[in-house]
Amino acid sequence: MTMTDPIADYLTRIRNGLRAGHKYADVPASRVKAEVSKILLDGGFINGIKFIDDDKQGFLRVYLKYGKDNAPVIQGIKRISKPSLRVYVSSKKIPRVFGGYGMAILSTSQGILPDSECRDRGIGGEVICEVW
């Protein structure tokens, strides 16, 4: 079966892992997923990432993060730009997620970056997802 939106699958696996209370979520590896995972790690939304080689494409093991009372740190994660409807923004119209408490992740000409870095550099791009 072919997958039309691997990023949406990645986000759904993280969302489902958090709801089930798992320590980690395994997702098929790709460069884009690894970059998004690094941004989530730098933002403090996950505990870590690890590449697991299986002599094929490999897996990314995303270690999920929980706070007090085992509440997940990621309260919501939403795909914005989809294969059927791409969403592009200029540097002046980058969304603020929950007034700055969340983060938007953008695909730009300079790579995949968090919203704050895009504002600092003055570049726009495709809004991949929002996390809060």
Give a written overview of the molecule.
- The chain is α+β, with helices and mostly antiparallel strands.
- It folds into two domains: 6-70, 2-Layer Sandwich (Ribosomal Protein S8, Chain: A, domain 1), CATH 3.30.1370.30; 77-131, Dna Ligase, domain 1.
- Helix content is 26%, strand content 30%.
- It is built from three helices and eight strands, in the order αβαββββββαβ.
- The strands form two sheets. Strands 4, 5, 6, 7 and 8 form a five-stranded antiparallel beta sheet that branches. A three-stranded antiparallel beta sheet has the order 1-3-2, with helices on one face.
- A hairpin with a 2-residue loop joins strand 6 (103-108) and strand 7.
- The model has no long low-confidence stretch (mean pLDDT 96).
Can you describe this structure in just a few lines?
26% of the residues lie in helices and 30% in strands. It contains three helices and eight strands.
- Our Rg estimate from Cα atoms comes to 15 Å
The residue fraction in helices comes out at 25-40%
* Proportion of residues in β-strands: 25-35%
CATH class of the largest domain: Alpha Beta
Domain count: 2
The secondary-structure element order is HEHEEEEEEHE
Shape, principal axes of CA atoms: globular
How large is the count of helical segments? Answer: 3
Using DSSP, what is the number of strands? 8
Mean pLDDT: 96
Structure class: alpha+beta
Stretches with pLDDT under 50, minimum 5 residues:
none
Distance between the termini: 31 Å
CATH topology of the largest domain: Ribosomal Protein S8, Chain: A, domain 1
In the CATH hierarchy, what is the architecture of the largest domain at level 2?
Answer: 2-Layer Sandwich
Major beta-sheet overview: 5 strands, antiparallel
